[in-house]
From TrEMBL:
It holds the Pfam family DNA_processg_A. Residues 297-356 form the DprA winged helix domain. GO terms for biological process: DNA-mediated transformation. Belongs to the DprA/Smf family. This is Protein smf (DNA-processing chain A). Coiled coil: none annotated. Residues 80-283 form the Smf/DprA SLOG domain.
Length: 365
């Protein structure tokens, strides 16, 4: 019943990731969130309708589109509690608790770079995006974008052979725009289509900015090729900065309106990019860590060389601990600890567990 419960939870109107996580932390498992007494849901900030929905069985909430998703051999789900939930995405302020997948699930944990830009791109901009995506893909990065017209589509096309990830603002069973249906099919052959929206969710303007936080959240950085003032690509770049990711921009003609976005980003501190090597050199050690960490659990005799990581490692168990417990044992603030936990998780030494907790991974025998 678990998958049905996950889908049902995503169907409750207005129940966003933060309250979904609060429910999981309260009840420990998604199945237990349903058919509970109303009293157990107090103090979670839920609306009356949401509490009423949680009194039902998951089967009473699911739609025909949900049933088709569950029965299809070509669809998949990535849950917050799954070991392969993308570690970078897990650390944004409001990560989705459920991802709907079509294509190659292994794409979830590749080192990604987002390439975004204008829907009304120039011929030069499209050629530039495609060339950068091809070169960066061949260097080992998976290219992430939003399957929109213009720069997004060019980025996906450039990375079709190396693998690309398309994050949708619609349900993963609907392709928007429809003109990209064939491109979407090609993406699933080597890459992955992702959405946080339930099946049969059509295009609505408010969903695309939310989609953008996932594009940046999955990625080590965001490269903006062409963007006018007010472009959604600038929203993605801003979100990347808030999430602690790198932002890159390709400059253009001072006479082109589509250069204004990249030029503003460069003035505000984004890295000016002229070649794929500029991106790779800036990503530096984190890129190398992610590439090597498709790994494996640590060797039995592993000990962190960094003294602070060693302190965190010594404070942890193979049973999950909350960050507050780890911080208390180590004498660190939660802010200090968060960056350390992310780094150790990326190296494959720790695993994120349900309820926002962490545990050691068992050593390889």
């Amino acid at each position: 019943m678990t998958d049905r419960a996950w889908l049902a939870l995503s169907r409750i109107p207005g129940l966003g990731p933060l309250r979904q996580r609060a429910l999981l932390e309260r009840f420990g498992a998604v199945d237990r969130c349903f058919q509970t007494g109303a009293g157990a849901l107090q103090n979670l900030g839920l609306q009356t309708g949401q509490i009423a929905a949680l009194q039902k069985a998951p089967e009473d909430i699911l739609t025909p589109a949900d049933q088709r998703w569950l029965e299809s051999p070509d669809t998949d789900l990535c849950r917050w509690t799954d070991a392969d939930y993308p570690p970078l995405l897990r650390h944004i302020p409001d990560p989705p608790l459920l991802l709907y997948l079509r294509g190659q699930r292994a794409g979830l944990n590749q080192a990604m770079l987002a390439i975004v830009g204008s829907r009304s791109a120039t011929t030069t901009g499209i050629a530039t995006a495609e060339a950068f995506a091809k070169n960066l893909g061949e260097a080992g990065l998976t290219i992430c974008s939003g399957l929109a017209l213009g720069i997004d589509a060019a980025a996906h096309r450039g990375a079709l052979h190396s693998g690309t990830v398309a994050v949708l603002g619609t349900g993963a069973d609907l392709i928007y725009p429809r003109s990209h249906l064939q491109l979407a099919r090609q993406i699933t052959e080597q890459g992955l289509i992702i959405s946080e929206q339930p099946p049969d969710t059509g295009p609505r303007s408010g969903l695309f900015p939310r989609r953008n936080r996932i594009i940046s959240g999955l990625s080590l950085g965001v490269l903006v090729v062409e963007a006018a003032d007010g472009s959604g690509s600038l929203i993605t770049a801003r979100l990347a900065l808030e999430q602690g990711r790198e932002v890159f921009a390709i400059p253009g003609s001072i006479h082109s309106p589509l250069s204004r976005g990249p030029h503003r980003l460069i003035r505000d501190g984004a890295k000016l990019v002229e070649s794929a090597e500029d991106v790779l050199s800036e990503l530096g050690p984190l890129y190398a860590v992610l590439r090597s960490s498709q790994a494996a659990a640590p060797a039995a005799d592993w000990r962190p060389e960094d003294s602070t990581q060693a302190k965190v490692w010594a404070a942890m168990d193979f049973d999950p601990l909350a960050p507050e417990q780890i911080a208390s044992r180590c004498g660190l603030t939660l802010t200090e600890l968060s960056a350390i936990l992310l780094d150790m998780e990326l190296q494959g030494y720790l695993a994120a567990c349900p309820g926002g907790r962490f545990c050691r991974l068992p050593p390889v025998s």
